[in-house]
Structure formats: structure tokens, C-alpha cells
Specification:
283 residues; alpha+beta; 7-stranded antiparallel sheet; 6-stranded antiparallel sheet; 7 helices; 18% helix; globular; binds zinc ion
């Protein structure tokens, strides 16, 4: 049954929008440090992520990593964990609230409660120019979860095994040398790297459009803590048409592991766990 608007409906709707969190209070990495850290990065390893598949990678604290588009326009789904404690992992929801629905240079990826600390800082984004398009879309979202076989089964009634959720699960099963069912719970909401998304302006539904990423583009991160990462090359390719099937052309992604200079590493400090006392008001 539809509702009848109250007489003051308009004025209630016209209450001012207030940004929930004081962004000025979010701790940032010092810009001069980032500049010095970036000045002498050397690539110490390159991990190849095959199309419709995922790979894991490790990054020491203070090192960095780049996710690169190669061969063709391709979207990636990224999971990150504290390499020494897999229960501490990327918290896309709070990252969204602290920064925005899409992240770029200077923004940080935060870990889940009760850890609640930056785990990676975005130090470069070749798609920073994209900003917000006329549909309200942006790049690198933290609003989508990841394509998964369960949702696909609900909507299409078929089993598809190369959704990002399954790709990440297989990669973690190999990394931890455990069966898929024992590692699946580690997979969490992703950073949708290179993906162009938003909410439709009229119905507020999640939309995707062809990613603006091209070979040579990359997003670069500083590891604020020691990281285990997993990246899936989404079966949706550039996510300009469909996903959760084998219809769209897909391309590999590369992950470069970056070592800074010894001087930059000496200046680096690892981020600390939340200092909240965790009593929640109980004595
Ligand atoms: Zn996907």
C-alpha cells in the first residue's frame, strides 16, 4: 500500500545533506613522504592474473604494489588481508563512508572492526582524470561486492564457476593449501579496480559501464601493513555488457610488487591497530 505524504513532506525532504564523517580528521600519509617513497621504486616481482582467474601476492609493510592493465580493457576485483592475521581484512563499507563511493589517489583502504586501521594508501591512479561522469559514475568503486555464483544462480538458474568470488576462492585455496570450502569465508567485499559504476540518477540502482581503463593504466598502493592480496580478472572484462558468463572478451592483469629506497623504508612507520579500549561501556 502506498503512503500519503504529510503536509510538510517537501520541507522534510529539503533538510540539508551533511557529510557524515569529518574527512579532515582522517589520518593521511605525509605528501612529502609519498613523493620521496615514489621517487625510487623498483619492481621486485610481477604476478600475472589470467583472464577469468585470480592470483595471490604478498607485499611487505612499507613496500608497494601496482595493478596494471595489459593487453585490453579489464576490471579487477581486489581482496586484501593482514598477511599475519587473515581475520583482519579490507573493510569496503567503512572505506566508502570515510572517503567516497569510489577511491583514488590519497585515499586509504581500511581494515575491519576491531582492527580499524589503514592497510594500504593509494599513491597514484592514472584514471584520476575520470572524476565523475554525467551519469554519476566513477572508477574504482567500493559499493559493489563482487560477482558470485550464488547471485548468478538466483538470477539465471545456472552454475558458473569463474565469477570473481570463485576465482578468489580458488586462489586462496592454492595459497593456503586448503579445500575451497575451508577458505571461502576469507573472501570479502572488494575494491572494484578500474570498474566504472554508480547508481542511476532516477531509480538509484547499481549500474556499470565500459571501463575507461586502457593498457598502460595503473593504480598504485603503499602497503601500510604487511599484506596478502588476491586479485581476480573479472569475467565481465571491461564490464561494458555482461558478467558471470563467458560472453565478454577478458584480458590478464599484472600486479607489480614495488620496493622503495632504503632511505624511504627507514622513514616508513607501520599503522597501529585501533586504540579504542573495546569495553563498549561495560566495566
Ligand atoms: Zn567480477
Amino acid at each position: 500500500m502506498t503512503t500519503v505524504p504529510p503536509e510538510d513532506a517537501k520541507s522534510r525532504q529539503q533538510a540539508p545533506a551533511i557529510v557524515c564523517y569529518n574527512v579532515e580528521s582522517v589520518p593521511r600519509r605525509n605528501e612529502a613522504f609519498i613523493e620521496a617513497w615514489r621517487a625510487e621504486l623498483s619492481v621486485v616481482d610481477t604476478v600475472i592474473v589470467k583472464p577469468r582467474d585470480a592470483s595471490t601476492f604478498r607485499v611487505p609493510a612499507g613496500y608497494g604494489f601496482r595493478i596494471l592493465s595489459v593487453e585490453g580493457s579489464q576490471v579487477g576485483d581486489l581482496n586484501l588481508w593482514n598477511a599475519n592475521n587473515l581475520s583482519e581484512r579490507f573493510f569496503s563499507g567503512k572505506t566508502r563512508q570515510l572517503h567516497a563511493s569510489h577511491v583514488t589517489r590519497g585515499d586509504r583502504l581500511w581494515t575491519n572492526i576491531p582492527n580499524m586501521r589503514p592497510m594500504a594508501t593509494i599513491t597514484y591512479d592514472s584514471l584520476e582524470w575520470y572524476g565523475w561522469d554525467e551519469d554519476g559514475g566513477g572508477v574504482h568503486d567500493v559499493i559493489g561486492t563482487r560477482c558470485d555464483p550464488y547471485t548468478n544462480h538466483v538470477l539465471n538458474g545456472v552454475d558458473y564457476h569463474h565469477c570473481c568470488h570463485s576465482n578468489l576462492t580458488r586462489a586462496m585455496a592454492e595459497e593456503l593449501n586448503l579445500p575451497a570450502v575451508e577458505v571461502e569465508h576469507h573472501i570479502h567485499d572488494v575494491l572494484n579496480v578500474f570498474m566504472c559504476t554508480g547508481f542511476t540518477l532516477d531509480t538509484h540502482q547499481y549500474f556499470m559501464k565500459a571501463s575507461p581503463v586502457r593498457p598502460g593504466d595503473y593504480i598504485e598502493f603503499l602497503a601500510d601493513i604487511e599484506l596478502l592480496g588476491a586479485l581476480s580478472a573479472c569475467p565481465g572484462g571491461n564490464c561494458g555488457s555482461s558478467h558471470s558468463d563467458d560472453e565478454t572478451p577478458c584480458y590478464p592483469l599484472h600486479v607489480e610488487i614495488l620496493k622503495p629506497s632504503d632511505d624511504a623504508l627507514a622513514q616508513f612507520h607501520e599503522e597501529s591497530l585501533s586504540a579504542y579500549d573495546r569495553t563498549h561501556g561495560l566495566i
